[in-house]
Amino acid sequence: MTPQQRLNALLELVSDRGNVSITEIGDELGISAATARRDLATLADQRLVTRTHGGAAALGAGYELPLQYKIARQAEAKTAIARATAALVAPGDTVGLNGGTTTTEVARELGKSERFIRADGEYGITIVTNALNIGYELSVRANVKIVVTGGVARRQSYELIGPLVRDTLDEFALDVVVLGVDGLTGQYGATTMHEGEAEVSRHFASVGRRVIVVADSTKIERSTFARICPLDRIDVLVTDRGVPASFATDLAAAGTELVVAD
Q1: CA pair distance 56, 59, nearest whole angstrom
Q2: What is the per-residue pLDDT across 64-96, written as a single tens digit (0 to 9) for each?
Q3: Is 24 exposed, middle or buried (0-12, 13-18, 19+ CB in 10 A)?
Q4: With contact defined as beta carbons under 8 Å apart, do 262 and 242 qualify?
């Protein structure tokens, strides 16, 4: 286990249990008490946990983890979701992507797929994104025309937000929009942690002919602070497991197609 993987695992342990002791950390992760204390100090310095006597506590259910600490979560599920989503995109499409770990995997899948490589050297796909990390990663792909919106960067997610994003998106008509979300319910639809990111995602949806939401099973029937759009604005949900029967009924009522990735 690398140091980053160990920090990810420790952060998830604290988040899941609310409070953990040094002894519990050592038992769960197989590390020494000294290593556990050092790792907790690292996370506390980054204001990701609160140190307590003999352990640590989570900051609260509404706290948003920085993107680098989300990468290891549900990694296999997100890769499968990305493959299934890429199969829904046609060569020549213009695709909008918001930020997040799942949409980043979708971007990687689109960037490396041979379906979007043209023999004449022209662009096989156009991607419009407000995510700096996606723009940076795809900028080396000769087959991808990458357009990054303007805006103000959020360090937690590498996403650009604000009126400049809206002004950029108003100039486009996108074939497909792929949205990563933090929660998805029948009552509130697609939601995310930050209101600025919700506004950008909502605007992406407004300029997309087809809207695809990508969400692993941990996001299903979970709602978070800021609403993006109702279920009936979502054409396709791509997830990694079958959904509860009650939520399947909500999807059917909204006319949202369910795709479960292999």
Answers
A1: 9
A2: 555 555 555 578 899 999 999 999 999 999 999
A3: middle
A4: no
What's 115's DSSP letter?
G
DSSP sequence for 226-245: EEEE-GGG-SEEEESSPPPH
* Contact (Cβ atoms closer than 8 angstroms) between residue 225 and residue 219: no
Could you tell me if 7 and 43 are in contact, meaning their C-beta atoms sit under 8 angstroms apart? yes
Strands, DSSP E only, in the chain?
19-21, 49-52, 55-58, 94-97, 125-129, 144-148, 152-153, 160-161, 174-180, 183-185, 189-192, 208-214, 226-229, 236-239, 257-260
Answer whether 163's CB lies under 8 Å from 189's CB: no
Closest C-alpha among 209, 224, 67, 58 to residue 132: 67
The Cα 12–Cα 6 span in angstroms is 10
Model confidence, pTM: 0.80
Question: What gap in Å lies between CA 55 and CA 58, rounded to an integer?
Answer: 11
